[in-house]
Each structure stands twice: as structure tokens, then as C-alpha cells.
Amino acid sequence: MNQYWSDTVCRLDPYIPGEQPQNRQYIKLNTNENPYPPSPAVAQVIQNFDIGTLRLYPDPESKALKQALADHHQISSEQVFIGNGSDEVLAHAFQSFFKQSKPLLFPDISYSFYPAYCALYDIEYTKIELDSNFCIDLNAFNRNNGGIILPNPNAPTGIALALTEIKTLLENTRSVVVVDEAYVDFGADSADCLIDSYDNLLVVQTFSKSRSLAGLRLGYALGNANLIEALNRVKNSFNSYPVDHLASAAAIASIEDQAYFQQCNRQVIESREDLSTKLRTLGFLVYPSSSNFVFVKHSKKAAVDIYEALKQAGILVRYFKSPRINNCLRISVGTDNECNALVNALNSILSK
Amino acid sequence: MNQYWSDTVCRLDPYIPGEQPQNRQYIKLNTNENPYPPSPAVAQVIQNFDIGTLRLYPDPESKALKQALADHHQISSEQVFIGNGSDEVLAHAFQSFFKQSKPLLFPDISYSFYPAYCALYDIEYTKIELDSNFCIDLNAFNRNNGGIILPNPNAPTGIALALTEIKTLLENTRSVVVVDEAYVDFGADSADCLIDSYDNLLVVQTFSKSRSLAGLRLGYALGNANLIEALNRVKNSFNSYPVDHLASAAAIASIEDQAYFQQCNRQVIESREDLSTKLRTLGFLVYPSSSNFVFVKHSKKAAVDIYEALKQAGILVRYFKSPRINNCLRISVGTDNECNALVNALNSILSK
Lengths: 352, 352
What we know:
The structure is a homodimer.
Chain A: H1 7-11, E1 27-28, H2 40-47, H3 63-73, E2 80-83, H4 86-97, E3 104-107, H5 114-121, E4 125-128, E5 147-151, H6 163-171, E6 177-180, E7 201-206, E8 219-223, H7 225-235, H8 245-256, H9 258-281, E9 284-286, E10 293-298, H10 303-312, E11 315-316, E12 329-332, H11 336-350
Parallel strand pairs in A: 1-11, 3-4, 3-5, 5-6, 6-7
Antiparallel strand pairs in A: 2-8, 7-8, 9-10, 10-12
């Protein structure tokens, strides 16, 4: 009974996030959350927060957080846009830049939210095939387009492009290029240093992964002030105050604790390399990851069977039914204990 | 230099929120915030929150909060939608229901965000004039339309419709009717009891005013499960996790403290009536308010001059430049001390 729905609602194909079981009995390696808690400075700022001020609206422009991010990335605060998670920032970017007469381009294997945004805003798109090694072939993006978006490192493959390659892409592109850097802190190079040189570059980052704040919903974009103004115009026609007081205070505390940030990221990278070695020993092809997850394919056993068996064993990983990757698994890097539990479970599953 | 902007961005006319000075030196009576802090239960739940869990994404469906709201409104959780502030909920509702071949109807003097949403989603609209007493004339809505939205009580007038009038409107309307009840807890009757009878009714409420949680960004909609499904489809094509862990926990704590909620609302209503009497004595026409603000017009002095003089005196109220109301002021009800400071300042301004 859809008589009341707009045509938009009828054509949607919503994104399906990874399972978030509300009982905590699983080892959760399915949604690329950080295995470590946020900086202790975050706990301190929240526990000491003056709750009485929650009666007031937050600063609609999030000026203090913008300045902290600008300082961190060595840019100006007019080059920063902040939203309620990078998914919201991406949504605004799709509406701001990608509704064009020519199609948007993105990799065929990529963040599965992109086609959902296209349906939401009625944006035409063309998927560009990854090569046979699941790498992004940038030459294939050198065609007529109304915009380009790609994750770097790519998800769910974890494979990163070099900054020189991003630069070449920007040299060859006259439309807006969004580089979605959700996982960049785990070993890839950010394009944040290029925004002064390319006025069509928008870099999107998040506090959800490398800053362990998925539960507080914070994402941001960096780019030329003209691109940021477009995002602000959309945001101010949608929701004046997307970032709440507590999220803002926590984010600033997180940015200021640079030592903890680097230490956690180093630990995740070490665990990833260790896990990759062990998975190869178990007969997995492990794609070279620059992120906080590994993308793997077993030489003998079907991915869906491994996924189900792991779930039975209390371990959640991510399985995608999509073409080309329906025999792969994406596994988030957990603590060393969690990784060991995974390896032990796989050992038992694969030896059956 | 807008070469990168979509047509949408170019046509926008963003909403301008009331001033949020980041220094706290003003008496803020300009954005209808509650003068009282949130329930002590909110402080407790936030101070005792396990910050480590912020590394995890929140429940994308906010099941626990939905159930708390369903219980509070005596409906089922399939009839509840939750978002990052009622502004976000309204935005999704505009996209879900109001993009139709016939125009959306709303009062000419109303929440000034409505035309901004229409620009964002390219929705045609017709403004229906309030009568000469600034009351909504529901007969005038009895015309060809693709949807109706009205605040009850209306903003910025504060004047409420009776539930019987809302019912008559619903009887006469075949499109979706959104009743925006941001201020309903300060003396009007909610239409939440009508959602089982009218499958085209969506009731929108917020935690920002009567629950003193503007700083945490929480709003929600109540309606037939079919309308809620449309909102979920849009939300899941936009941002899977709009409500963060802390906001969700705080909201549940707030709902559970019914006694505090009622006590604060009673206090605001008492202060409003007292303030209204004093303002009338000072020569103001005070419209009959069922909200946490009063809408006033002075018999002699221009509203813009009073606004400026109050600002000089450290008191912020809201002045709108819009036609018909550009000689009125909207004044939020503060604590009794704040209201007295306002009355004293007005006394001095008006006697000059």
C-alpha cells in the first residue's frame, strides 16, 4: 500500500549495514569497528561534561571542531565540513555535486552505499570494473563523467592507490572527485595535502574507524571552500545542527590525543599483518590491505559456508552476495585475542 | 564559481537558525530552548556510560528507544521513526511524501524551514494565509494538494488548533498530513491518538524543547507503519545510524522520568502566563500561546528597534524580517529570573 509514497521512495534500494547484534555475545569482525576503545581523553570529557548545557542547541557551524580538524590537517577551517557520520557527509556530497547530465563513475566493487545514494537523488552512474587483481584501474576512469567517487583504500578489498595515482586522476578530471578515506589511517596516504592544488577534490574522513568513535557518528569532508560552501547550503536546507554537543567535545578530545591515535593504528596494522600471514597458512588468498580489515578468498571452501560456520562458532565476519566477490569474506582486524580465536575457529572449520 | 555545484545547490535558500552565541553572556530567549536542564536521570546515564562501547556502531534501528517511545505514546514500535533531531525527520518526510504532482500546502506564517526543504527536494508548494488573528484557517486547506504540513501549536505564533479541528482536516484530506508538534507538550493536544484511525497522518515530535535535549539532536515521527516504512527506506539510503549511543541512552532516561518532564512543563506554562500578563501591561499585544514562547507586537515601538535594544542589553529574542510578521517578536519563556530581566529591560527601553 504505497499510495502515499513519493516516486523517490518507490525506486530506492536501501543500504544494508552489517549485523549489529544487540546482545554482545559475538566476536564482531563484520563492521570494521576498531577493537580498541576511544582515547581516555574522550571518556574524561564526556564524564565531566556539563549536562545542563544539553538544553541548548549546539553551534550550528561546529566552529571549535572545525578549527581542531583544520589544525590537524594543516588547512583552514573554511575547507572543513562536518556531519553526523561520513555516510551523511557522502549523502550531501552526492546531492551537491553528482546530480549532473553525465554519469557518476565508481568502481564496480566498492562501498555498497554509493548506488543507494544514486537512487535517493536520481543520479545516473556507471560502474568501472576493478582489474583481475581487484585493483582500481584509473585509466578506465578517463572518460566522460559527471563526477568520480572512490574509496582509498578501497572497500571491501582494502587495496590502496598511491597518492601519485590520485594526482594523475585529478589532472585528467574536470568534474568533482571524492576520495572516501574512511580507512586511510591504517596505512594509505591521505589526499588532504592536495586540496589547495585541485579545486575539484573532496576528501572524506570519519571518526568511526581509526578514532574508535563509530558510536558517536562523526564524519567530515576537506576541500576547496567553494565545495564546502555547497555542502553547507545543502546541510542548512536539511538539518541546521547535525553534530551534537557531546560528539563535538569527544571529537576534539580525540584529535588532541595524537599519541593514542598513532599507537592504536600501529597496533591494528601489526595485528593485520600477523593475521594475514596466519590466514595465508590456512589456504586463504589475502589481498594486500591498507585498512583495518582483510579481504580473503579460500582456495577450497566456499565463502558463504565459512561465514555460516564462523557465525555458529560465535564470530561475525562480512559476506557480500554481490557478483565477483560472492566467494570472498571481509574480516575486520580485532584484538590479538580475537584474531587468534578467529584463526582457531577457521582451523577447526577447514579441517572438517 | 559554481561550476561544480548541482542545480539543486544553486536553487537552495537555506534556513537561518537563531543566533547561537558561543560565549554565554546573553540571556538567550531566541531559539525556544527550555530554561531548565534535562532530567537528572540523563546526567546519570551519561556519566555512567561505558565509553568503550563508543567504538561500536549504534543499533541502526534504535530498537530500545523506539520501544520506549512506543510505550510512552501507547502505540507499537513499528509506528515510530527516530532521527537526528526533528529537522532531519521532517526532511525525510518531505522527500518521502511531498514530492507530488500537486502542491504541498502550509501556512504562510509558519516554521521557516518548510520552504527550504521544498527547495532541497524541488517540491512545489502553496502558502495558505493565516487569518487576521494569526490563526490557521483549516477551511482554506480544503483544496487540491499533494500534502499538508502544519505545526501545532503553530510557530512562531504559538497558537494551537484543537484536536477536533485536526480530525476534521484529516477527514477532508486524501494526501499525507504532517502535524509538527515540536511545542505540543506546553499546552496543546497531541494527534498521536489519531494515528490508528488515519493512515495518512504523521505526527512529528522532538526532545529539543519539552525534554531540554536540543544539544543531543533527537526527533521522531509517529504514524501508520506504511508511512514509517517510507521514512526508513529514505533513512537507510541516507545514513544507517543517525542516532548515536549517548543520545539514545539519554532519550530513554528522559522518557522514563515522567515526573520531571511534567513538572518542568508545568513551570514553563506558569511562567509563560505570568510573562504574558506583564507584557500586556507594557503595551504588547500577546497572542494566545500554547508553546514555550510568546509572539508579541508592541502598540507603539517597532519590533526591530526593540530587538536591537534588547540585544544591546544582553537579551536575545527572535526577530523575523518576513512580511506580515516583521513588526512582531518571538520570545522564548525563560526562568522567572530571565523573564524578570526581560521585563525590566523592556520597561527601560519603552520608557525612553
